UniProtKB/TrEMBL annotation:
Name of the protein described by the UniProt record: DEAD/DEAH box helicase
InterPro entries: DEAD/DEAH_box_helicase_dom (IPR011545), Helicase_ATP-bd (IPR014001), P-loop_NTPase (IPR027417), RNA-DNA_Helicase (IPR050699)
Keywords: ATP-binding, Helicase, Hydrolase, Nucleotide-binding
PANTHER family noted in UniProt: ATP-DEPENDENT RNA AND DNA HELICASE, ATP-DEPENDENT RNA HELICASE SUPV3L1, MITOCHONDRIAL-RELATED
Pfam families per UniProt: DEAD (PF00270)
A single GO BP: nuclear-transcribed mRNA catabolic process, 3'-5' exonucleolytic nonsense-mediated decay
GO MF, one annotated term: ATP binding
Amino acid sequence: MVQKKETGARRKRRPRRCRSKIVLPAVPLKLDRFQEEAIAALLDGYTVLVAAPTGTGKTLIAEKLLEHILAAGKGAVYTSPIKALSNQKYRDFGRLFGPERVGLITGDLSINERAPLLVMTTEIFRNWCFANPGELEHTSHVIFDEMHYLDDPDRGTAWEESIIFAPPHMKILGLSATVPNIQEISSWMAEVRGEVVKVIEERCRAVPLEISWIAPGGDVLDEEEAREEIAERQEIRRWRRHRWNDMMVAGREELDY
């Protein structure tokens, strides 16, 4: 029988989640170059596309814009691709701007739908553009989170129709992961919207991306440990398969006698 050797992976356990309260630093937050450029373009009245890796601070751009919009007494719509993310943003914005200023509209429920800041799925916003355009009269901006869904073969039409049929007075902030055709998307938007679309890109990943593997027992493995784990499991499967074949052959021989 194959004996499974010990590896350093057995000593590495997945860290437990910390539930302690996060204390934010008192020092002012310094914006990155692409954040400053995006916010400046938005405040100058442009439609803006921001393409940056996950974890680089795209949401902060939206928060700064929303802060300006609400201070000016105007309204905004924040769209997301899924209900769970809409629910999360509703809670986040409620803590940030006050629950009385934030509403949530999904296919399941409607909360404070007269609030100046409304969070909804992209499909809901698309439907509003068709059925209730008058409700958006005092809404100055729509923010599309995860705008790379525009390339999705199944759901991309919701983003396309939302961009095409959003009232002309509304400006757009699109937040996207890094995509190769961002310039093509901006050119298309400029054509269908009849306006200048600014593209702000950031290639640098602020938080380094590390790849790990989680073994069935819960151990966190690096690449070398994962390869060892896979090789050992393959060896065990081969041994079991050969053992099973030997047992089947022995059983047939007994029946022959």
